[in-house]
Design a protein that fits this description.
- Helices cover 37% and strands 21% of the residues.
- The chain has 13 helices and 21 strands.
- The protein has helices at residues 15-18, 61-65, 115-124, 126-130, 145-150, 159-198, 200-205, 215-218, 305-311, 315-323, 335-338, 348-386, 395-403; strands at 10-14, 19-23, 35-42, 51-52, 57-59, 70-71, 76-79, 91-94, 98-100, 104-109, 152-156, 210-214, 219-222, 236-239, 243-246, 260-262, 267-269, 279-281, 288-290, 295-299, 342-346.
- Helix 6 (159-198) runs antiparallel to helix 12 (348-386) and helix 6 (159-198) crosses helix 13.
- The protein has a 5-stranded mixed beta sheet with strand order 2-10-7-8-4.
Length: 404
Amino acid sequence: MEHAPLPRGWQRHELGELVSFASGGTPSKEKADYWNGDIPWVTAKDMKTFELTSSELKITPDGLRHGGRTVPANSLLVLVRGMTLMKDVPICLTAREMAFNQDVRGLQVKGKVEPRFLAYALVAQKEQLRGLVNIAGHGTGRLSTEALAEHPIIFPASREEQSAIAAVLSAWDRPIGQTTALIAAKARLKQGLMQQLFGEAAHSQRQLESKLCHLGDVAAESTRRNVGGLDAEAVYSVTKANGMVPMHEDIVGSDITRYKLVRPKAFAYNPMRINIGSIARWEGGSEVLVSPDYVVFECSAELDPDYLNHFRRGHVWDSYVKRSGDGSVRVRIYFDHLSRMRIRLPGIQEQRRIAKVLDAANAELRLLERKLKALKQQKRGLMQQLLTGQVRVPKSLLKKGAQS
């Protein structure tokens, strides 16, 4: 196989020349004295961060002796077997000595390359590694140690330059990690706020200013059809992730006169999929259509649509929907059933104030998510340039990187 010319001062080696491989294992689950120790035992579900500091399960020294081996700090862990390989190839750097199960390979660096640089290099090559995954057989995905060992890695011969590149990328990881943690904290804060606003404690505090009613008392199903002659471009479907989105043309029926009309701020859902969250409010300014199999309903003057749009994401709604339905395999919840949900409803002005508070929380989360996306894109660009030698680290940073 021909390779592109190397940057000046760089070299190419197969991964197997740079690391030694270690296979993991699982101690017997029936031996209580093998578990709940102090040694982290890593599985695929732990491999969600670049730098691993701990794991969900831990084993004892006896468990280690009967269930695999460890790698020291600054070793790499690569997932080589499991469904996750279909979409990703998790690669982590250990921050301490760790054990791992049989779905993971440990890569202990021999000395030619800095461990953190090598970890970044492999992360940057996830697409290539994914191409090596064999999904034959059971289709669970398997990345063989042999394929890993033959995978080429290019890197600067200078350890100073390796360290400097790793230091630059680590500096980008800090704001990414901080922003990720902040998003998680803000999401927890919002959930707590929703519990205060919609939970039983909130209801008891506001009983004098609110009324207990059913959803059907303040909302009504709409069965209006496409009598206005809207065309196929106006047909939408409901998704959990993105709300109401245009339906693919090849799915739209040839006769759309029976399709249901959805007015601005009305709600629509598939009665077969509401149990997994496929319900949305139409945010557009003009009427659209949904399948005749969908349920459409609108709020009365006593119920603010913004308030209900937040309420449906809370525990009361979720708990009711999970308990409801008349299907044992796929739940079907039509409006006559959904309308029986009990809601303690504050006055319309209070509903609007609550909706504005939660709107502000959502806006803050969206802003942080956009910031996180931008940071990750910038880091990917840096990795592409620095880890291929297209851009070289300034000499002024070399010594600083080597000392970090």
